Structures are given as C-alpha cells and as structure tokens.
Amino acid sequence: MADETYKEMFALCQALPGPGSTKMIYAINIIHGGYIAGMLSFLIWRWVVSLTLHFGSAFSGAIAAYALAVGVYRISDTLPSIVYALLSGLNAATVGIIALAAVQLSQKAATDKITRILVFLGGSAGLLYNALWYFPVLMVFGAATTVVWDYRWCHNVFNVTRARMNRSRNRLDTSTEEGRAGEPVMLQDVTLPQDLSNTTASSVQRESTASRRGPFPEENEHQVVASPETNVLSWEFGVTVITCFFLTFIVIMVVRGTVHDQPFGFRVFANLYLAGTIIFGGGPVVIPLLREYVVAEGWVSPRDFLLGLAICQAFPGPNFNFAVYLGAIAVAGHLNAAAGAIIGYIAIFGPGIILHTGTMSLWKNLRNIRWFISALRGINATAVGLIYTAVYRLWEQGFLSETFTSGSSLDLDPWWVVVTATSFVGGHWFNVPAPATIVLGGVMGIVWYGVTKT
C-alpha cells in the first residue's frame, strides 16, 4: 500500500463513525483482498494474536465483554465494603484515562480557532443539557459552523458591514465640513514619496488579489495526490450502500419515535444504532453517548455501567466493545443475554463499517469536496468536546459504597483525586498502559479501604 493511500485511509477512519482501529484493518484488507477479506478481518481482527494474549480485539474482546455482563448480572445489589472500594478505585482510574484521551484528542482535533471553540462548546453544551436528540444536533451544528467558517461567509458579511459603516461615517464627515463657515482653504499639491506610492499601489494590488481568492487560501491548500488504490469498489456500489444505510436509519428512527409497544430488543437496538451512527472521534466519544442512551433509559444501573466501564478499559480492543456488555445487561429479563450482546455488537459496529464501505468507493471524489472535509472537521471537534462531558458525568458517579450503591461524586475523599491524577500522569508522562493504570487504581482503592476501616 502506498504511503499516501495509508494516510488517507487513516484520516477517513478517524473522520467517520465507529472504532478507528477496526475500520483501518477492514480497509486495508478490502484494498488487498476484496470485500470478503475485509469482512473476515472485521470479525476476527487480531484473533491470531489473541491466542497469545488470551484476548482478542474486536470480536474476541466482545466475547470477553459478554462474559463480563453475565457475571455482573449475577452480582447481588449489596456488595462487601472492600469490593466497593475496589470498584471506586477502578472508576477513579478510568476517569483519569478518559481525561487523558480527551486532552490528547483535543490536541489533534483543535487545529485552529474555530475547532478550539467547537471543542469547548461541545463539552459545555453536553454538561448543560441531556436528551436523546441533543447530541446529533450538536454534531450538525459543528459541521455547519466549520463550513461557514472555512468558506468565510461570516467574514464577508462582516467586511461588507464594516465597509458600509465606514462609507456612512465618511459621508457624515463630508457633510459636516461643507456646512462649516469660514475662510476658504488653499489647497497645495502634495507629491507622495516614491516608496510610499509604491507601497500604496502594492497594498491595493494585494487586497484585490486577496478578494479574488476563494474561502481556502491557495498557499494553505493541501495538494491531494491521486490514489486509485482506494477505488476497489465501484462508485455505484458506494452510492447504493450509503443510500440504503440512511434509508434504513430513517425508518428505524421513525419507528423508534412513533410506534408504541415496540419489542424491547428493537428499542435497545435503535438506541445503540443511533449512538453508533453519530460517534465521531474514536472510542472515548462512545462513553457519554452510551451513558445517555442506555443508563438514562433505565435499562442499566449507574453501578453496573461504571463497573463494566472500568473493567472493559482493561480489555484489549476498542471501547466499542463496551456496547456488547451494555446490550447483554440491558435485555436482562426480556431476552437472552447472548441475544443482547449480539444486538449491541451489530448496532454499535454496523454503522461505521457500512459507511466506511460506501465512502471508500466514493473517496476519490469526496476527498476533493471542500465542504465535506470542513464538515467532518467540525463534527470531529464537537465530538471530542463531549468526552469532557463524560469525564464530569463519570466523576460525579464514580464513588460506590453501601450508602451510595448507584454512585456518588469522587470528590467525597481527596484520595480518589489522587487516584485519578495518578492514572492521568502515568499515561501522559510515563506511557503506562491503560490496563496497568486500571489495576493500579483498584489496588489504591483497596489501600484506601485498609487505611479507613482500621
């Protein structure tokens, strides 16, 4: 694979919904072996490696998440104090990992003033209001904002308004001068210096040239090199795939919002399918969306959500496997746990894989459409801002005890702040792997129990 092709596929994987690592290996195998090879790689991604590591990534990690869900469902509502301390330590360490992911992704997504603003607004807006329709609206707002900014539509309106104000001010000054009474003023011819004349002329020429430029300065444009390797599927196939996806998505959302007495499995699938469609920016973004679309519905308790999140962070593979765990927990009492796990797996991974398949076929054309690239930039920045929302929400429910079985704020004891900071610093400055920081957080939770209960 050419280096340019690899870079473009990497950028495309990061820009579209779904787990970036899974989509990347899927794209590489499609380019080399076709659609069937890509689908097989999606299902058994890193399965050979899992024989050595005892865990896989996407598929085998999902199996581990399902097994975890079965175990958590059998846990009683009341646990020993030492277990609550262990879980609180795991949760505090998880908050540190997610905070680190938010900072790192912000550095990549916030490349200019407008994307920095969108990261900030995404996080702030996510804190101030919660609703199932709210996050998609924020994504659309982010896309529209960067398109307007990159095409300088607001800049043009501002410049026209300022020019009109200046002309009005000049006319007012002229009228004032004409109305004054006094002796006539003798005008003298003034010859501008040669260098000043040249400077003025060159300035006018630069302004004229700048006014003819498009919304994207030529010197900052990225020259795209043709990459025929990405056209392994026909553009007709890509259009068909994307069209069918959005048609089915619309049907699912309409049924979800209008039909009463829906099968419980469909309700879980629809919520997770919506989350899988609007998750831009990688695994950490999935956490706030899943919390709102599953916990807020009352299908999964905050305790089970936090417990599964903390342990799933120690599993290899994408954070999207967490949806498998939630699907198995959510359908308890309605469907078999295995059915819920399959529902979660298909709903969370399906949209990203389907859209990536269709977009790969059209990428040669889409990569040259500036508004499309601008829209993806805004969506990504807004989605990254939502990770900070997840940090706050998880912090507010990370502490578990016999009194707070559904979770309370981690600021009840400074020790949990230390655990969170240890996780953040360990990953940021010392490159400690996430599973190791999770285990360390659990150990620190047990230490806290030993100190406070003696």
From TrEMBL:
It holds the Pfam family Chromate_transp. Residues 198-208 have a biased composition (Polar residues). It is a multi-pass membrane protein. Keywords: Cell membrane, Membrane, Transmembrane, Transmembrane helix. Residues 198-223 are annotated as: Disordered. It is found in: Cell membrane. GO terms for molecular function: chromate transmembrane transporter activity. One of its GO terms (cellular component) is plasma membrane. Its main location: membrane. The chain crosses the membrane at residues 24-45, 57-76, 82-105, 117-135, 237-256, 268-290, 323-348, 432-451. Belongs to the chromate ion transporter (CHR) (TC 2.A.51) family. This is Chromate transporter. It comes from Lepraria neglecta.
